[in-house]
Structure prediction request, 493 residues.
Amino acid sequence: MEYDVIVVGKGNAALSAALSAQENGAKVLILEAASEDEHGGNSRFAGGVMRFAYESLEDLRRVTDITDEEAANSNFGTNTTDEFFDVLFRLTSFRTDPDLSEILVTQSLDTMAWLRTKGAKFILNHGRQSGMVDGKRVYFGNMPIEVNGGGAGLVDYLDKAAKKNGIDIQYDTRVSSLIFDGETVSGVRAQQKGQPVELRAKSVVLACGGFEANPEMRTRYLGPGWELCKVRGSRFNQGDGLKMALDIGAAPYGNWSGCHATGWDRNAPEFGDVTVGDQFQKHSYIFGLLINADGKRFVDEGADFHSFTYAKYGGAVLQQPAQFAWQVFDSKVSKLLRSEYRIKFMTKVSANTLEELATKLEGVNPDGFLKTVREYNAAVKKDVPFNHVVKDGKGTEGIEPKKSNWAQALDTPPYDAYSTTCGITFTFGGLRIDKETGQVVNVHFKPIPGLYCAGEMVGGLFYFNYPSGTGLVSGAVFGRLAGKGAALAAKQG
Ligand SMILES: Cc1cc2nc3c(=O)[nH]c(=O)nc-3n(C[C@H](O)[C@H](O)[C@H](O)COP(=O)(O)OP(=O)(O)OC[C@H]3O[C@@H](n4cnc5c(N)ncnc54)[C@H](O)[C@@H]3O)c2cc1C
Prediction:
């Protein structure tokens, strides 16, 4: 047996697991289904914001360098462990596994600092969820730090660290099953460059994503219609890891009918495009209206900051007739729209009157749209000032659905509208793990010797919704845990 630990996948969770196993004394092999060109999974498509617990400048300085001048001119806010817990519990309707979320929250800062020791470079997150207030930069999203170069940057840093630390990587190797003697996992079977191979190791860490890129599994678990969405990231996350683990009796866990899905350009390609990354998304809907084919609104666009609604509103778009929604804005908010509203590849129309716009919104009933806007404009609270850096309470009265914050009349031309559909990010259903080691447990909750998992494959954290910036951090936290567990077990074995 040449390797102690085989890690399946090469996204952030897999690379974190591999580095952790290596620093705990294991000889590690990474197997990646994609070619070297397409490696990196969803992690490579990620925008790169990372949600971790911090309460002081010193905490932030464990993750990145912040000059005294930057500190003096910024209000970083906090994301205390209590705040992080609160948001996880609130968004998952109190379903998140208390032990898993405790690990995620309490180890998040330490894990960010650990990633830094592996060469990851973090920077202040000016571009997303910050604004100038009274001469100071205010970070209002509880996420003042992002990884340099986004998810692609993170994969690159960790890839370099893996190579530097003697971790072997084999590409074009799609793992199809586990070598299991009824008691212990001792390796994997795979198709390597089209040839069947068997690779053995004392421990296997599965970090090969969910089933988001597999339309058959999406329809089976998420429900009818989910085969029709776009995939925001990697085409390689086909649910293989989940299937092979369930096949040997691993326990499924978490929200198998749930997923993270957002508004995404209606004409985006079927899968993600790394040259565009996350920019097909359209996350500034909180300042406008979402309009369906009937010309009607269907969600409270301003229920909260986008970080807390975007991951469930993709699913709401999928439920609309013909699975699309136009995001409509007037010129009062143009300056507030995020960078993704200024890319080259997008489905956008503009008009100088609402009547003209109504004829340009492809697929929309124009009379329905004009009626919706008339009723909405009349319902906006006029006596509350608009303020985009707080939940301003400038809502609507007497219409359904209401808009709770950032509601301004749509009355100042030119009007811009962006056509979106549903883009799936990742699936929530996963495997049940032992919380000390990251080891996968079987349907009788007994650890399966030799089998570990991390990243999107860990079930039980997210239900119904998700706070932005948590995927990468949870991949690193549970990757680090599983890598260590796998290495220590391999040494003992
Ligand atoms: C567009 C987009 C934007 C995002 N933005 C953010 C963000 O800003 N912040 C954040 O925290 N999260 C973000 N996320 C979510 C985040 O990217 C994921 O939660 C996280 O990357 C998952 O990491 P992972 O390692 O579990 O999976 P992945 O990174 O998807 O890695 C899975 C790996 O497994 C490989 N694989 C799959 N099947 C097999 C097989 N059978 N054999 C071998 N290898 C296999 C894949 O090729 C891939 O290398 C975003 C996601 C997308 C798609």
Q: What stands out?
A: DSSP finds twelve helices and 21 strands in the chain. The mean pLDDT is 97. The longest helix spans residues 470-492. The radius of gyration is 23 Å.
